[in-house]
Specification:
203 residues, five-stranded parallel β-sheet, four-stranded mixed β-sheet, 8 helices, globular
């Protein structure tokens, strides 16, 4: 008997270190799968359909929106992006925990459709540290850095909409905290009682 996996929704501002923390988390746990998004943009060199993204035409994407096939979707710079529900549900039914790294507006859409999802906001230790990290990338103009910091302020103001907040002052520690959250959520009585009932332990 396979126990259904957890849907984990994670958000955080650009520069908070989500990719680094998720990478470390997936080295700690072997029971997590990363959600693959769908998009209408063209594949970049080396990208594979179903691995990096599900590449769909605009017509296909609009049809999927009409069929309510997405947990969330949005349009950015002329292209659609979204999280198809079916692959997520298939992995959950197989017992995998599925992780969505998603911005706050998309997270709100997912949580509205799946209120049982586990929501985590990954926050930087301070805006000063966030600015240091953004500058350390060496890829953004002053204008873009200022824009990212302003967006980060707005996103951090919404952190109270999440069940958990993890402050990434150390990526290894943040990954361990995420691991502990997943373990604790897996042991919630509601989930375990459902599993026990299926195993005839409560009859």
């Amino acid at each position: 008997m396979t126990e259904k996996g957890l849907l984990i929704v994670m958000s955080g501002p650009s520069g908070a270190g989500k990719s680094t923390v998720i990478g470390k988390l997936m080295k700690i746990r072997s029971d997590i799968r990363f959600s693959v998004s769908a998009t209408t943009r063209d594949p970049r060199p080396g990208e594979e359909d179903g691995v990096n993204y599900f590449f769909r035409t605009r017509e296909e994407f609009l049809r999927m929106i009409g069929e309510d096939a997405f947990l969330e979707h949005a349009e950015y710079v002329g292209n659609f992006y979204g999280t198809p529900a079916r692959p997520v549900d298939e992995r959950l039914a197989e017992g995998w925990h599925v992780l969505l790294d998603i911005e706050v507006q998309g997270a709100a859409q997912v949580l509205q459709k799946r209120p049982d999802a586990v929501s985590v906001f990954l926050a930087p230790p301070s805006l000063e540290e966030l600015e240091r990290r953004l500058r350390g990338r060496g890829t953004d103009t002053e204008e873009k850095i200022a824009g990212r910091l302003e967006t980060a302020r707005r996103e951090c103001a919404l952190a109270n909409n999440y069940t958990y907040i993890v402050v990434n002052d150390d990526a290894d520690k943040a990954a361990r905290e995420l691991d502990a959250i997943i373990t604790a959520e897996s042991c919630r009585s509601g989930r375990k009682l459902e599993s026990m009932a299926k195993g005839d332990l409560l009859s």
